[in-house]
Specification:
1230 residues, alpha+beta, Mac-2 Binding Protein, 15-stranded mixed sheet, 18 helices, SRCR
């Protein structure tokens, strides 16, 4: 039994002679009695002898005490009362306890452990990762489970074999006091030694000085110590400090958290990192408050992990954590403290104005305007020693820069604005905050030139003048000023006495050395009381602001000999107005269709000085490096940018506006709003806008203006800001003023006398002064090519009261630009001009069809009957009576005519894509005919239709009838007959001839024919055809036809059914004959069904199939010529009988005499085929076939199969199919 006990308790072997009886404790149950152990059992429970636990009555006053050879020692590592639970057995082996299956009683187990090592009770169960587990992972392990064991006095009683043993047993006992050193952040391993009780307290001189003190604070060993006010101060061998790293260099108050240990920087790992840890770092480094932390990717092996600070430690190094030289980091914490935050005003005209930038995490970032509160502006200005904000209602705009954004939002617990900075995401289309403080100063030059004049200083709406005192104003100060103003080098400097009351002027003075970049970088000095002079300077450069395309385009600043762009970030609407006025480009600014793309610029921004109206006096901020931005872009314009499109018309036609380099037309009903006093016609000197247009607008595929809306205060001189609305694929509007006029060529549009039409009527143009130049300009306006010839024509017509003379510079955009105020002389003559081009109008057929101009179709849009009449008259086809559209897209002409255009070539036209072209019909295209020769029903060819004709009784007079007979090349005869008109009247035309109509074609109308009579002509020579006698309806024929159809249908059904049955029977026969071979009957059947030419033969053969399906006998010769195509196919594929048993007619019906046929290794001899079918009867007579059909439902073995009773057993007998299908037995007899 002793062996079993020592072995199961892992205590070695029994000590010989050490077993003895000891007094039994009262009230303690004896569980096992009468044991008979052999010594080999795994536990006492396995020993035989005891009836059951606690059943055997034990009344002795003593029990056995056994002593084993093992010596068990339990301790904690690395500290006496804190660390991992460790055991050793007789100094022979050791290991660690692991806490498998620790449950609610794990605190009791830990309490037992602390007391067993003499460290009092349990203080806490710390994180397992806070201790060094390198030895644990490679050592022996023992599980601890005290569940179900009462009154445990030693942890070893709960030890057993481990299960998984992932985590060690770690405890902190009451006997352990945490230590830390309170000293300088430059070395946290030197300073006053403190221990943690309820709070951190200094360790006094009643402690044993050992290396353990430095080891417990992870600082090596004791180097030296001293006492200050009886408080122990230690200096350990390690030198440790917490640092923040920005990349590979130490940074101030931001960066990845590192620890420098003995000169080596190693990261702190981020597992379990908290905001409290980050606060600890900022506090330790005297960096203010934590504003942001995050975990980032690791940068190498760490020195601390699982850090857990409470906030009252002296250093991050002394927080609870796992320490080690080569810890594996999954991530590294990155901390930003408020001490790293700085503010600046960047990219402005001075240090006290610009875009607010924040140094955050080592990077200058912009501040999001959407979350900015203006109350913070004063704080920023005061931080930068710039006073307060100016409080302007319209603050300046600055270069937006690039990079990330932060937001600033403080609460009442954040008095320092640097603690309120927060990173921002999703900042697309965000604008940066800009601030102008009251101490912001700018320099300007007041003079006639941009780079010369009196030197002035503007600050917060106050103007100062630079003193011209000899004590401060010198060449160094003047040279600095020229460079600051981007005006090149100094040419000369001087001073002049101030004009006006000197008491109203405030002076400033600066002393420069020549090395400064700005006058404000020089030393500001006090002025002598006697100063009365203003500094004057003249620089070599010149500054000018313009637009790249004259009156529109990108803003260009000419400075230092170059013309460069400026960013749109700082550009304002007021600057655009000023620039348009300075360049005399109109009284309005138009909004751009599309801003230009980003590009490299030289100037970041432009800033006006005070209320100056001259952009040359502005301050320019130049880029110091390559910058890209959207350049400033301005479109100037006004009333002068709107005009009539140059054409043969004057004061009439399409209105267009000059916009971004293009003259864009106005669409129908487009509005122009330039104020209540604006009248377009008056501005064009064309009279009043009182006449509605007489011409329709033409379609336009490109961009067109739908509205020009110019805002302002309503006065005539107020500067306007205009917006233009655009559309595509519109109809252009046509405007006509009261003083409209148009010039035309009277014959066909491209030749004829030159005439001017206006409200005064038609007037001819005098030939005086006309040369080839004027002729070319007119022909081009008329879309007639180049000038060809001219001649003078005498006449007394009314003449236009002005002449025409074009300048030789070629700038005339229309013939009206050549009009002079000189009237024609009294010897005037009419002008006849012919152009090289033509406006030839035609129809696709004679007097009808598609309308074409110079072989190109005319579009149907806006077409009306007047246009059709012009075409028919021009082609001598009379009037038009119909027009319609021909569908289909095609290139063609859109046409718009005025009332005075008598031919289509004179009308206005543009080329485009027709959705449909126009087709017309002229009256000369109408013709008449009759249903019979010289008589019968009258028919009219009207447009595209032949229609019957009706007429009132009164209209059918002899003259009309005679005229109709003559049109049919027949002589007049009798009166017409009258017949009733059918009820349907759609395809009828009515003859209605007033007394004054001489052409019967003009009598054809579309009036209804409901109460009129059909016109029937009976001209001379007309013989009326006798009508055929009426016939009875063929009722019997219909009945007979239906009967025949039914019979045919029945025959077809019977034929198909018989065909299917026959195929089925044949397939079954073959299956029974060849049960071991797979035969594709379905495909065979489909092949035969797909051969319609053979089906008729198959049908004919089927009549004889019952009589002669197989022929028996050797050497039998068949004289039958019947064709059994389907049987032949089966025979060829699967021969059922040898050659001598196969009828020749089944083998090959269409072989030539004496021919042989070989298939599948079998050769067939074919006898001579008979020439006719006369011997069919003989075959039927000589051959007798008996067929027995049996339904074989049960499979029978081949050996036991016998023919039916009375039948001959030979090779022709077919065995039953094993599948139980129908079997066919055939027996041939002769």
């Amino acid at each position: 039994m002793e062996k079993v006990v020592c072995r199961t308790t892992q205590c070695g072997v029994p000590v010989p002679g050490a077993t003895k009886n000891v007094q039994r404790l009262e009230n303690r149950t004896v569980w096992l009695n009468e044991l008979k152990c052999s010594g080999n059992e795994d536990s006492l429970w396995d020993c035989p002898g005891y009836p059951a636990p606690g059943v055997s009555v034990y009344q002795k006053p003593t029990v056995k005490m056994i002593k084993c050879s093992g010596q068990i020692k339990i301790s904690l590592e690395p500290h006496e009362c804190h660390g991992v639970a460790k055991y050793s057995v007789s100094a022979t082996h050791s290991g660690y306890f692991c806490k498998d299956n620790w449950g609610p009683k794990d605190t009791q187990t830990a309490e037992l452990l602390c007391r067993s090592v003499g460290c009092g009770g349990l203080k806490e169960i710390p994180r397992a990762r806070w201790v060094d587990m390198s030895n644990y992972e490679r050592s022996e392990k023992m599980g601890v489970d005290c569940a179900g064991i009462d009154s445990v006095t030693n942890l070893w009683l709960c030890a057993g074999k481990p299960n998984q043993c992932r985590d060690p047993v770690v405890v902190t006992c009451e006997g352990h006091e945490r230590l830390q050193l309170l000293g300088s952040p430059t070395n946290v391993c030197s300073g006053q030694l403190q221990q943690k009780k309820t709070k951190w307290e200094a360790v006094r001189n009643n402690i044993n000085i050992t290396d353990r003190l430095c080891t417990e604070v992870n600082c090596g060993t004791v180097k030296n110590y001293t006492y200050v006010d009886q408080n122990l101060h230690l200096t350990c061998t390690d030198t440790v400090k917490v640092v923040l790293m920005d990349g590979k260099r130490e940074s101030k108050c931001f960066g990845r958290v590192h620890v420098n240990r003995n000169g080596l920087n190693q990261p702190v790992c981020g597992a379990g990192w908290t905001a409290e840890n980050s606060h600890m770092v900022c506090k330790e480094l005297s960096c203010g408050k934590l504003i942001e932390w995050t975990n980032k990717a690791p940068v190498g092996p760490g020195v601390m992990d699982d850090v857990n600070c409470s906030g009252n430690e002296s250093s991050l190094w002394h927080c609870k954590a796992r320490h080690g030289p080569q810890l594996t980091c999954q991530q590294t914490p990155h901390v930003i403290c408020s001490g790293s935050v700085k503010f600046s005003l960047a990219d402005g005209p001075g240090k006290c104005a610009g875009r607010l930038d924040v140094l955050h995490g080592g990077e200058w970032k912009r501040v999001a305007k959407s979350k900015w509160n203006e109350k913070y502006s004063d704080n920023i200005c005061q931080r930068l020693n710039c006073g307060k904000t100016t409080g302007e209602n319209h603050p300046e705009r600055f270069f937006q820069g690039s990079g990330s954004f932060v937001s600033i939002a403080c609460d009442q617990n954040q008095p320092d604005i640097s603690e309120c900075v927060k990173s921002e995401q999703n900042t697309r289309n965000e604008e940066a905050v800009g601030i102008t403080c009251e101490n912001h100063e700018v320099v300007f030059l007041k003079g006639s030139e941009s780079c010369s004049g009196a030197v002035g200083i503007r600050q917060n709406n106050n103007t100062f003048w630079l003193s011209g005192s000899n004590e401060t104003w010198n060449s160094e100060a003047a040279e600095t000023l020229c460079q600051q103003m981007h005006c090149g080098r100094l040419t000369k400097f001087s001073s002049s006495s101030s004009a006006g009351d000197i008491s109203d002027m405030i002076f400033r003075a600066y002393r420069c050395s020549g090395k400064q970049r700005s006058l404000f970088d020089c030393d500001k000095v006090e002025l002598p009381d006697h100063n009365e002079n203003i500094a004057q300077v003249e620089c070599s450069g010149k500054i000018n602001v313009s637009l790249s395309e004259g009156c529109w385009g990108k803003v260009r600043i000419f400075a230092e000999g170059k013309s460069e762009g400026v960013c749109a970030d700082s550009w304002t609407e007021e600057m655009s107005k000023t620039l348009c006025q300075e360049t005399s480009c109109g009284e309005a600014v138009f909004k751009a269709r599309k801003l230009p793309a980003r590009e490299v610029v030289t100037f970041k921004s432009l800033h006006t000085v005070g209320n100056t109206s001259n952009l040359r006096e502005s301050t320019f901020v130049k880029t110091e490096k390559r910058e890209t931005c959207v350049p400033a872009y301005v479109i100037c314009g006004g009333r002068e940018n709107i005009r009539f499109r140059p054409s043969r018309d004057k004061c009439s036609g399409v209105v267009e506006a000059f916009y971004e380099g293009d003259w864009l037309p106005m669409s129908t009903n487009a509005a122009i709003r330039f104020g209540a006093d604006y009248d377009f016609c008056e501005h064009q000197k064309c009279g009043k806008s009182e006449n509605p247009p007489t011409r329709l607008g033409l379609p336009h595929d490109g961009e067109a203006i739908t509205a020009i809306d110019c805002s302002g205060d309503g006065s005539k001189d107020a500067f306007k800001v205009c917006s233009i609305s655009l559309t595509r694929n519109s109809v252009l509007g046509v405007q006509q003023c009261s003083d409209w006029r148009e010039i035309v060529l009277e014959d066909d549009g491209c030749k004829g006398e030159v005439a001017v039409y206006s409200q005064a009527g038609r007037m001819l143009v005098s030939s005086e002064g006309w040369t080839e130049t004027e002729g070319n300009r007119l022909c081009k306006d008329l879309q007639c090519g180049k000038f060809k010839t001219k001649r003078e024509v005498s006449g007394d017509d009314s003449f236009w009261n002005k002449t025409f003379k074009c300048a030789n510079d070629g700038k005339a955009e229309s013939i009206w630009d050549c009009e002079t105020e000189t009237p024609p002389s009294l010897q005037r003559k009419k002008l006849f001009i012919e152009c090289q081009g033509q406006s030839k109008v035609s129809l696709s057929s004679s007097c009808s069809g598609e309308v074409r101009i110079n072989s190109s179709p005319v579009c149907n849009q806006n077409w009306d009957t007047d246009y059709s009449n012009r075409v028919c008259q021009e082609l001598n086809c009379g009037n038009a009576f119909d027009h319609s559209g021909l569908s289909g897209k095609k290139p063609g002409h859109y046409v718009s005519c005025d009332q005075h255009h008598h031919v289509l070539g004179q009308c206005g036209r543009v080329e485009g894509t027709c959705q449909s072209s126009v087709s017309i019909h002229c009256y000369k295209n109408i013709s008449f005919s009759t249903s019979e020769n010289c008589g019968g029903h009258l028919i009219v060819n009207y447009g595209k239709k032949r229609e019957n004709v009706c007429a009132d009784k009164e209209a059918l007079n002899k003259d009309l009838l005679d005229t109709l007979c003559k049109m049919m090349n027949c002589e007049a005869n009798d009166k017409p007959t009258k017949e009733a008109i059918p009820e349907t009247t759609r395809s009828w035309k009515k003859l209605h001839c007033p007394a004054d109509v001489r052409d019967v074609k003009y009598c054809v109308t579309t009036q209804p024919c409901k109460t009129n009579k059909q016109v029937t002509l009976q001209c001379k020579g007309y013989i009326q055809r006798k009508p055929d006698p009426p016939q009875k309806k063929p009722t019997s024929a219909i009945v007979i036809g239906l009967g025949i159809g039914v019979v045919v249908l029945i025959l077809i059904v019977l034929f198909v059914r018989k065909l299917i049955v026959r195929r089925t029977q044949k397939s079954r026969v073959l299956q029974q004959m060849f049960p071991d071979r797979e035969i594709d009957f379905d495909s065979e059947m489909y092949e035969e069904m797909n051969q319609p030419d053979d089906m008729e033969e198959d049908f004919r053969q089927d009549r004889f199939l019952a009589e002669t399906e197989f022929v028996k006998g050797k050497g039998a010769q068949s004289s039958s010529s019947l064709q059994y195509d389907d049987v032949d196919e089966v025979t060829e594929a699967h021969p059922l009988t040898p050659k001598e048993l196969t009828p020749a007619s089944l083998r090959e019906p269409y072989r030539q005499e004496g021919a042989s046929y070989q298939s599948d290794g079998v050769t067939y001899e074919v006898d001579d085929l008979p020439e006719n079918y006369d011997d069919v009867g003989d075959i039927a007579a000589n051959v007798q076939t008996t067929t027995d059909v049996h339904n074989q439902l049960k499979a029978t073995p081949r050996s036991s199969t016998a023919p039916p009773e009375g039948q001959q057993s030979d090779e022709d007998y077919l065995e039953p199919d094993q599948n139980g299908f129908q079997a066919v037995y055939v027996n041939w007899t002769e």
